[in-house]
Specification:
Elements (H helix, E strand, L loop, with lengths): L1 E6 L8 H10 L4 E4 L22 H4 L3 H11 L4 E8 L5 H14 L4 E6 L4 H6 L7 H17 L3 E4 L4 E5 L13 E4 L4 H9 L2 E3 L8 H14 L8 E5 L5 H10 L3 E5 L5 H12 L4
Parallel strand pairs: 1-2, 1-10, 2-3, 3-4, 4-7, 7-8, 8-9, 9-10
Antiparallel strand pairs: 5-6
Length: 278
């Protein structure tokens, strides 16, 4: 089992570089950072986590900027988006950012992606919520072409471009691992189709161990080995017995949730969590 943390980095949170160093010193494998470009002032979409949207959603830093700072201050810590809202991003620009961060980190980047829940936020980026999953798949396919080919081209229903030259290529070949967010059954289905990992959120859709057979079935449908897909539980438990059960059940990674807090508040939390991973 690998152990990481997930956080919404903000201007009032412990500085990204310092947080990365503290995690690496304590033996954590990875850090996953969230993304929201903005929160619409008039919002109809309910937040899946409850009634009131936490302030950190309004304030989060750009994930690629935060992760670059962390990667530059560390040598072994893996840096990851958790998740990148790919349906709100140009695929050519995002392919460049992913490849650049993979180069800067010497191959330590993991690309967590998803569509999110905020329909108004999507619409502000010109995304039709009804076709967002097809859009995400096509953008993944297009970026895979950019990372692999020179020149690269892609012709889909929603993403289309003629041959282009785009460098650098990622250090990890053929590309950094793509971890697909989303609950069962759709999350496992998409992960099996075009991902290298699946990121369910703890506490939202029942026991993750009960959902692993769904991933197995989806992999069989597309002729993939289940072992090709890493399962990383976002907002994982901090109970030792629960962690042991997840390890025995076949999970690959747990990411503990960190509050968007300053150094003095975060350091004791990190010290406690470090006792769970030894």
């Amino acid at each position: 089992m690998h152990y990481g943390v997930c956080i919404f980095p903000t201007a009032y949170t412990m500085a990204p570089a310092a947080l990365g160093v503290a995690l690496e010193e304590r033996g954590f494998e990875s850090i996953w950072v969230a993304e929201h470009t903005h929160i619409p002032a008039e919002r109809r979409s309910p937040w899946p986590g409850g009634a009131e949207l936490p302030q950190m959603y309004y304030d989060t830093l750009d994930p690629f900027v935060a992760l670059t700072a962390m990667a530059s201050a560390t040598t072994t810590l893996k840096v990851a988006t958790g998740i990148c809202l790919l349906i709100e991003r140009d695929p050519i620009i995002t392919a460049k950012e992913v490849a650049s961060l993979d180069v800067v980190s010497a191959g330590r980047f993991m690309f967590g992606i998803g569509s999110g829940w905020n329909v108004e936020e999507m619409e502000n980026h010109g995304t039709d919520a009804s076709t967002r999953w097809k859009l995400m798949r096509e953008r993944v396919e297009a970026m895979k072409a950019i990372w692999a080919d020179d020149p690269a081209e892609y012709h889909g229903e929603l993403v289309d471009f003629d041959p282009i030259h785009a460098n650098p290529k990622p250090v990890q070949r053929p590309h950094p691992p793509i971890h697909v967010g989303g609950g069962a059954p759709h999350g496992p289905r998409r992960a099996a189709r075009y991902g290298n990992g699946w990121i369910p959120i703890g506490g939202r859709d029942g026991s993750i161990l009960d959902q692993l057979p769904i991933l197995e079935e989806e992999c069989e449908k597309v002729g993939r080995d289940r072992e090709e897909i890493e399962v990383s539980l976002y907002y994982g438990p901090t109970d030792r017995d629960e962690l042991s059960a997840l390890t025995e059940g076949g999970l690959d990674r747990v990411a503990f949730a960190l509050p968007s807090a300053p150094r003095d508040e975060l350091m004791p939390i990190l010290d406690h969590l470090a006792t769970l991973i030894v």
